[in-house]
Write a structure and sequence with these properties.
Elements: H1 13-21, H2 25-44, E1 50-52, E2 59-62, E3 68-70, H3 71-81
Antiparallel strand pairs: 1-2, 2-3
Helix pairs in contact: 1-2
């Protein structure tokens, strides 16, 4: 990991993840960009209306903005939306 340390003491995250996973650095950067785009969609949405996506991993997609969240984010979103 030391070969990926920046002069300011931080690490080049894409290079580290590439070494750990075997995914090329360009692929890691594409994943980073997809995550950032998903967060931007969710942040810009005025009201989320999540629907389950199906499959083995519990994920949900907002029908308004197209952003996706995992089960835990969905659970806490619903806790904030519905009164106890």
């Amino acid at each position: 990991m030391e070969q990926h340390r920046n002069p300011d003491g931080t690490y080049n995250g894409a290079a580290v993840l590439s070494d750990l996973t075997g995914i090329p650095q360009d692929g890691v950067r594409q994943i980073f960009e997809q995550v950032k785009a998903n967060h931007a969609k969710l942040a810009a949405c005025a009201f989320h209306d999540f629907a389950p996506l199906g499959g083995p991993r519990k994920r949900y997609r907002c029908q308004n903005c197209g952003g996706e969240v995992d089960f835990h984010a969905y659970h806490w979103h619903e806790q904030g939306r519905r009164p106890r």
